[in-house]
Amino acid sequence: MKLHPAFLLIVMAFACASEKPQPQPAIIPQPLQMEATPGFYRLNEKTRINYDTGLENEAGLLVKYIAFKTGLKLEMIPDRNQQNVIRLELSDLVDTPEGYILQVEGHEIWIKAQTTAGIFYGIQSLRQLIPFQKGETVKIPAVKISDEPRFPYRGMHLDVCRHFFDVDFIKKMLDAMAAHKLNRFHWHLTEDQGWRIEIKKYPELTRIGAWRNSTLIGHASDRPEKFDTIRYGGYYTQEQIKEIVEYAAERHITVIPEIEMPGHAQAALASYPWLGCFDQKVEVWNKWGVSENVYCAGKESTFDFLENVLSEVADLFPGEYIHIGGDECPKANWEKCPHCQSRIKNERLENEHELQSYFIQRIERFLNSKGKRIIGWDEILEGGLAPNATVMSWRGEEGGIAAARQQHDVIMTPNDICYFDHYQAGPEGEPLAIGGMTTVEDVYGYEPVPEVLNQSEQKYILGTQANVWTEYIPTPEHAEYMIFPRLCAMAEVCWTANEKKEYSDFMKRLKAHETILDLLGLNQ
Ligand code: TNX
Question: For the whole model, what pTM was predicted?
Answer without folding.
Answer: 0.96
